[in-house]
Design brief:
Blueprint (H helix, E strand, L loop, with lengths): L12 E4 L4 E3 L22 E3 L2 E3 L5 H5 L17 E2 L5 E2 L33 E10 L26 H14 L5 E6 L9 E13 L21 E4 L4 E2 L4 E2 L1 E8 L2 E4 L3 E6 L9 E12 L6 E12 H4 L23 H7 L16 E4 L5 E5 L5 E2 L4 E2 L2 H4 E2 L19 E12 L1 E5 L2
Parallel strand pairs: 10-24
Antiparallel strand pairs: 1-2, 3-4, 5-6, 7-8, 7-23, 8-9, 9-10, 9-13, 11-12, 13-14, 14-16, 15-16, 16-17, 17-23, 18-19, 19-22, 20-21
C-alpha cells in the first residue's frame, strides 16, 4: 500500500518498544519513528518501509481521503475501513461491483487440442526453479487495476524474502516435483499453435531408490535423467485425466493459458512434514523454444484463499527473531500475513465485498469480517463491523474464524519458474 501522504496531529505518548520510544508528532512523512515490524509501533500506527505510519483515524478517511477534498476526481479511495493500527483495509468502490471474468474466454476454441489426451502423452516438463516473484511480476487475476497500468496482482511478494531459499532446497531435494505437460502440439513445432492444453501434475521420482541428483540433468557418470511418475492424486475420472488442465495457445514461442485452474504442490517451508498447498485461479505463461527442451521465463499467478493459509503452519515464529518479537509455536501463515506482513486481501472471490482480518497484539487473528454485502450502492449503505463479524469455530480461539467458509477471499501471488524436458514413465502407486 502506498505510503500515506499526510499525518494529522497526534497527542499523548505511544507505548515503549524494543526499538524506540514512539512519541506523538504533527509533521509529514520523513520524521516517523523507525521500526522493524508493527509491534514496534504504538496504538494507531503500523510499520511500513522501516517507519511507523498512520494512514487514517476513521473509516471516512479511507473512503474519502482528506487530501482529496480540494480535487476529489484526482484521488482514489484508500480502502473500506480504518483498522486498529490506523491502516486502510479492504476495497471501497461506490459503483456496482465488477463482474469477474474467468479468463479471456473469447480466445478459447470450441475444441481444444490435447484436452482429452491421456496423461503423459504430451510434451512433459519438470519444474526446476520456483520462487515467489517480486511485487512487479504477476497477472491481472481479477480484471481490476489500481490505476493506469497498475494491474499486477501479487500481494504476497514479501513472502518470497522469507521462503524462496527453502522452496529452492525443496526442489533440489526432490520434495517439490511439479510436472507441466503441453498436449495437442502440432509437430514439428514452429513456434505457433492456436490451440493446446496445459496440464499440471504432482510428480514422483521414477528412480528406485530415490535419486534427486538426476531430476533435472544427467549427472557425471550417468546416462539418463528426468524420469518421473505422475502422482495418482493429480488425476481423476474414467478414463483418467488431469485434475488441473487449461486451454492455452502459443504465439511466437510464448505459451499462455486462457482460463484459470487450481493447482496443488508441496510447499517446502519450515520443518518436515511439509504441507500440500492449493493455489486457486492459476494462470500461466512461459517461453517455449523450437526444440521443446525447456520452459523459460515462466510465470504462474493465482490466489491463496484465506482458509488455505489458515491451515498452513507458520514456520517463521517458532522462536523469537527479528521478524517475530514473540514466540508463536502454533500460529499459521494467515497470522503471519495479517499481523506482521499486512498486505491487503485483494481478490474478491466471489465479487460480493472484500473480507477483512484484524490481528492483535497476540500475533494472531483476533477478528474476521465477512465482505458479503459490506457496501451496496443502492441503497447507499455500508454494513457495520458488528454485522460483518464472523464467529470463530472455537470461542476461546478467535483465530479459528479464518477457517469459516465465509472467509473465501484471497491474496494474490506471482510465482516465477523454469522447467526442463522430462519423461513420464507411468503413474505412481
Amino acid at each position: 500500500m502506498a505510503r500515506a501522504e499526510w499525518l494529522l496531529p497526534l497527542s499523548g505518548a505511544f507505548a515503549t518498544s524494543a526499538v524506540a520510544t514512539l512519541v506523538a508528532f504533527a509533521v509529514g512523512p520523513g520524521c516517523q519513528t523507525r521500526c522493524f515490524n508493527s509491534f514496534d509501533c504504538g496504538d494507531g500506527s503500523f510499520c511500513y518501509a522501516g517507519r511507523c505510519e498512520t494512514e487514517c483515524f476513521t473509516d471516512d478517511d479511507c473512503r474519502r481521503p482528506p487530501e482529496c477534498q480540494d480535487n476529489p476526481l484526482a484521488c482514489q479511495p484508500k480502502g473500506l475501513k480504518c483498522n486498529s493500527v490506523g491502516r486502510c483495509v479492504g476495497r471501497y468502490d461506490p459503483r456496482p461491483p465488477p463482474v469477474f471474468v474467468q479468463g479471456p474466454v473469447s480466445e478459447i476454441d470450441t475444441e481444444v487440442d490435447g484436452w482429452d489426451d491421456p496423461p503423459g502423452t504430451g510434451q512433459a516438463f519438470i519444474v526446476d526453479s520456483l520462487a515467489i516473484a517480486d511485487r512487479s511480476r504477476g497477472f491481472d487475476i481479477d480484471g481490476i487495476c489500481r490505476g493506469p497500468g497498475d494491474c499486477v496482482d501479487n500481494s504476497l511478494w514479501q513472502l518470497g524474502q522469507l521462503g524462496n531459499d527453502q522452496i529452492r532446497q525443496g526442489l533440489l531435494g526432490g520434495e517439490t516435483l511439479l510436472l507441466i505437460e503441453v498436449s495437442g502440439l502440432n509437430l514439428p513445432f514452429v513456434g505457433n499453435d492456436r490451440t493446446v492444453t496445459v496440464k499440471f501434475f504432482g510428480a514422483r521420482d521414477a528412480d528406485d531408490p530415490f535419486f534427486p541428483a538426476n531430476n533435472f540433468q544427467i549427472p557425471m557418470g550417468e546416462t539418463t535423467c528426468c524420469e518421473f511418475k505422475i502422482n495418482p492424486q493429480s488425476i481423476a475420472g474414467i478414463p483418467p485425466q488431469a485434475r488441473a488442465r487449461a486451454p492455452a495457445k502459443i504465439e511466437r514461442g510464448q505459451l499462455k493459458s486462457l482460463a484459470p485452474v487450481p493447482i496443488q504442490f508441496t510447499l517446502t517451508v519450515g520443518v518436515p512434514p511439509h504441507p500440500e498447498i492449493r493455489i486457486e485461479r492459476v494462470l500461466l505463461s512461459a517461453r517455449v523454444p523450437a526444440k521443446l527442451t525447456e520452459l523459460s521465463e515462466g510465470l504462474l499467478g493465482g490466489a491463496l484463499p484465506i482458509n488455505t493459509l489458515a491451515q498452513t503452519d507458520n514456520p517463521y515464529c517458532k522462536t523469537l527473531n527479528q521478524l517475530c518479537p514473540r514466540q508463536l509455536p502454533d500460529s499459521t501463515l494467515i497470522d503471519l500475513i495479517a499481523t506482521i506482513l499486512p498486505p491487503d486481501i485483494d481478490l474478491d472471490i466471489p465479487p460480493d465485498g472484500v473480507e477483512r482480518l484484524e490481528g492483535g497484539g497476540s500475533g494472531r487473528i483476533e477478528i474476521c469480517y465477512d465482505g458479503e454485502n459490506s457496501c451496496q450502492p443502492v441503497p447507499s449503505r455500508c454494513a457495520s463491523d458488528e454485522e460483518m463479524k464472523v464467529a470463530p469455530f472455537e470461542p476461546s480461539k478467535p483465530w479459528t474464524c479464518a477457517l469459516r467458509p465465509a472467509m473465501a477471499d484471497g491474496y494474490s501471488v506471482g510465482i516465477t519458474f523454469s522447467a526442463v524436458k522430462a519423461t513420464v514413465v507411468g503413474v505412481g502407486q
